[in-house]
Write a structure and sequence with these properties.
With 319 residues, the protein is an alpha/beta fold. It has a single domain, classed as Rossmann fold (3-Layer(aba) Sandwich), CATH 3.40.50. The radius of gyration is 19 Å and the shape is globular.
Length: 319
């Protein structure tokens, strides 16, 4: 639970997120504007086997969009198709030939960078340039909240890529989601077993969070409609909770007390060393945003953390 995107779960755990039963094949319509103002035609989803970009697939499929998925491991192909992709490109995002093949003929792209790439800026800029060269029309970039926090490596890598998008001539939408509810997925069994929720920063600092399913819905709107064009949107659910609040919510759902604890970052080894600036910032400031924008875009209340924990408690995410 240390970052926005560093954890993985079995691909089958996302199947329950579909809005109804997926059709066996996505609609293969040419790119055009329909009567209700949406666009149809092929859309590329980068990182479609991931637990975040993967949530965009059913949202697009529900809108009748033909989806091309760029994935890293060919073994994930069947699971990605089950979520709505009609075409799979497997390869490395750093490989220019793979990217060119993935972009050929598509007009809209959803892009989210793999977590904690050491060369995230270089990869992101190259990808934006490749979109321009491939005559892509629209790019939706899932960045993160407060990218101006230049002392946090995962934040500092985002502004140069956003600048490349702004300078590209592409239609664009920039998404700034806060911490994801889904970061609790991998640690849930440990929380239940130990009756403790623990992270390597203060239990007293407050955070805004968001269910990435809501972010995925916003991404699908941005890719298929006109109303979010050229916007930059902070995306948060309601509530600014510290770890004591989170523990209380989990305890309410499970029907027994749950404790809040702080993990000493020094005990986490070398892998966590690069994240120490993030832990230190979270220790003192948390990460705060506002739900107004997400509520306005969705036209409903965003999903709540309590409801997410209720899903985890009923094994919703692992069926």
């Amino acid at each position: 639970m240390f970052s926005q995107r560093r954890f993985s779960v079995p691909l089958k755990s996302l199947k329950s997120l579909h809005k109804g039963k997926l059709d066996e094949q996505a609609e293969q319509a040419p790119l055009r504007k329909s009567r209700n103002g949406t666009l149809s035609g092929a859309t590329l989803v980068v990182g479609a086997a991931g637990k975040f970009a993967g949530l965009v697939l059913p949202e697009l499929h529900a809108r009748g969009v033909a989806i091309r998925a760029l994935i890293h491991n060919p073994a994930d192909s069947d699971a990605v198709k089950a979520r709505g992709a009609s075409e799979i490109i497997a390869g490395d995002l750093a490989d220019r030939a793979t990217v060119q093949r993935a972009l050929a003929g598509v007009k809209r792209v959803f892009y989210i960078a793999p977590a904690f790439l050491t060369n995230e800026v270089e990869i992101g800029r190259q990808f934006v340039a490749a979109c321009t060269a491939a005559d892509v029309k629209r790019l939706v970039f899932s960045s993160l909240i407060h990218p101006v926090l230049e002392n946090l490596p995962n934040h500092a890598a985002k502004p140069p890529v956003e600048a490349a998008v702004l300078d590209s001539g592409l239609e664009y939408t920039l998404l700034h989601p806060s911490l994801f509810f889904q970061n609790y997925l991998d640690g849930w069994s440990r929380i239940v077993a130990t009756e403790t929720v623990a992270e390597p920063w203060s239990s007293d600092t407050r955070f805004s969070r968001v269910d990435y399913r809501d972010v995925a819905e916003v991404a699908a709107i941005a890719l298929t409609e006109e109303r979010l064009l050229y916007g930059t949107f902070e995306l948060c659910a309601e509530g600014r909770l510290d770890r004591h609040d989170v523990a209380a919510l989990i305890g309410k759902v499970l029907g027994r007390p749950i404790k809040a604890a702080r993990v000493d970052p020094d005990t986490l080894g070398e892998r966590a060393a690069a994240m120490r600036p993030m832990f230190d910032h979270y220790d003192h400031h948390g990460l705060l945003g506002n739900a107004l924008t997400l509520r306005a875009i969705l036209g409903r209340e965003p999903r709540t953390l309590e409801a997410f924990f209720e899903e985890l408690a009923t094994d919703h995410w692992h069926r």
